[in-house]
């Protein structure tokens, strides 16, 4: 279910689906290409474990997660957005299996790309 108060909801959901694909893409070159489309150059990511600045910093963090959990994938949950800000649920675990973790992220979108990501676990 997507809740929106403006007409950007579908575009935001598309950006968030691409964001999740960054986390799931195992080929570093392809992941960076998707990241360049998803993130502003100076995008900022923060969650309870870390913070990362810029596309390169975010890519390094994602690569670390993939090394720790090579067989797990992320799935996009419910999205709610308005005025270029969105929050959405996500799950993380083995494909087709029960999630090992869930959370909610809040993002700020500027000119169609994510500029800030605030991640929450649980």
By helix and strand content, what is the structural category?
A: alpha/beta
Shape descriptor reads: globular
The portion of residues forming beta strands comes to 35-45%
What's the end-to-end separation, in Å?
Answer: 20 Å
Taking pLDDT < 50 over at least 5 consecutive residues as the criterion, the unreliable ranges are 1-7
Widest sheet, order of strands: 1-4-5-6-7-2-3
Order of helices and strands: EHHEEHEEEE
CATH topology: Nuclear Transport Factor 2, Chain: A
> Roughly what is the average pLDDT, rounded to an integer?
94
Tell me the number of structural domains.
1
What composes the largest sheet?
7 strands, mixed
What share of the residues lie within helices?
25-40%
- The CATH class name reads Alpha Beta
What is the number of beta strands? 7
CATH architecture: Roll
Rounded to the nearest angstrom, the radius of gyration is 13 Å
Domain SnoaL-like: 17-116
Pfam families: SnoaL_2 (PF12680)
InterPro entries: NTF2-like_dom_sf, SnoaL-like
Protein name: Nuclear transport factor 2 family protein
